[in-house]
Design a protein that fits this description.
Elements: E1 2-9, E2 14-20, H1 25-31, E3 49-54, E4 57-58, H2 70-74, E5 77-79, E6 84-85, E7 89-93, E8 105-117, E9 121-128, E10 139-144, E11 149-154, E12 163-169, H3 175-182, E13 188-195, E14 207-212, H4 217-229, E15 235-241, H5 250-259, E16 263-269, H6 288-291, E17 297-302, H7 304-317, E18 323-330, E19 333-339
Parallel strand pairs: 1-7, 14-15, 14-17, 15-16, 17-18
Antiparallel strand pairs: 1-2, 3-5, 3-7, 4-6, 8-9, 8-13, 9-12, 10-11, 10-13, 18-19
Helix pairs in contact: 4-5
Length: about 350
């Protein structure tokens, strides 16, 4: 038996390694040419200390208190030289990937299908020789052929699917949008990733997803994973757009509602002239039920003003979610983070 271990470096790079049953993480990483921080490798110095965000493991009892205190162990700090996984795990490594002599993975993909949603967005599917491994919510950089430039997009498909999908905002005259207008089936692109600290953590309490426009994409990947697991926690999604025609892939959300009994969603349109029954911004549709008195994990993906508005709304309402993970995007960049 082998376990999949995601190593998340502080520069946003994620590398996946396989860890054999009974194998220590440090040894598995070295075997796969990733030099995690280390010095003694005997549980004495603490140099290899990391944080295990999800998954089960055994640390044994051969390390000393100076290397890893009891309080740190309770906080799921681990010594990779002693950590033996007992399931798939996600580990935060407190150094950049370059310090471990590794970096992002690169892979080639071919255009499989393009679905246009009026003038709002394009749903693009790529076929890959090898199914990409990523955490639901993460993104890749896609090179625009012939330009030498890249654009960042979150996966909307299930991790491990050989057809990787993305929901891409249509930007008139935009670099990627212009290329997609003339792209043909089997055209090749290069991708680099996965990247980002915005991804679905272990589910311990109700979830609140807040999506702005094509920021819906990472939540489609998360919902795919939750549906595959048969998640029992309450999952609520509020999906806000600017115009009626920006409200895309609602049929996919309806399909998830049929697969996930505890999933519900609301869509809203900011344009006052909209014919949609729910108008306004996502902050106007956060009910006390979905906020659950703060006992909720919040994930938000949208433009920077949306992130700022939601943070201010929590402050005004006196609500502090247990965790708040966000990804804010501009036409050319993605920024991920966490906030109280």
């Amino acid at each position: 038996m082998t376990y999949s271990i995601a190593l998340n470096f502080e520069d946003g790079v994620t590398r996946f390694i396989d860890c054999k049953e009974g194998e220590k993480v440090l040894d598995a990483a070295f075997r796969q040419r990733i030099n995690l921080p280390m010095d003694c490798s005997d549980g004495v110095c603490g140099t290899c200390k990391c944080h295990c965000e999800t998954g089960a493991y055994d640390l044994g009892d051969e390390y000393i208190e100076d290397a890893l205190s009891e309080d740190e162990a309770q906080e799921r700090k681990v010594l990779t030289c002693q950590m033996v996984p007992q399931s798939d795990c996600v580990i935060a490594v407190p150094v950049p990937s370059s310090a471990c002599k590794t970096g992002t993975s690169q892979f080639a993909a071919n255009v499989h299908a393009i679905t246009r949603h009026a003038d709002a967005a394009l749903e693009v599917s790529f076929e890959l020789d090898q199914a990409p491994v990523f955490l639901p919510g993460q993104y890749v950089n896609i090179e625009v052929p012939g330009t030498g430039q890249t654009r960042s997009y979150s996966f909307s498909s299930l991790p491990g699917d050989k057809h990787a999908s993305f929901l891409i905002k249509h930007v008139p005259g935009g670099l990627m949008s212009s290329w997609l207008e003339r792209a043909q089936h089997a055209d090749k692109v290069a991708m680099t990733g996965p990247l980002g600290s915005f991804y679905l953590r272990e589910v311990k309490r109700p979830l609140l997803f807040l999506a702005g426009g094509t920021g819906l994409a990472p939540f489609l990947a998360m919902l795919e994973v939750l549906a595959e697991r048969g998640e029992s926690q309450q999952v609520s999604l509020i999906y806000g757009v600017t115009r009626d025609q920006d409200r895309v892939m609602v049929d996919s959300l309806q399909a998830f509602a049929a697969r996930l009994p505890n999933f519900s969603f609301v869509t809203c349109v900011a344009d006052p002239a909209s014919v949609h029954p729910q108008k306004g911004y996502v902050t106007q549709h956060m009910t006390p039920e979905v906020l659950n008195q703060g006992d909720v994990d919040v994930y938000l993906c949208g433009p920077p003003p949306m992130v700022d508005a939601v943070r201010q709304h929590f402050k005004d309402q006196g609500v502090t979610p247990v965790s708040f993970h966000y990804e804010k995007f501009t036409p050319n960049a993605i920024v991920t983070g966490d906030a109280a």
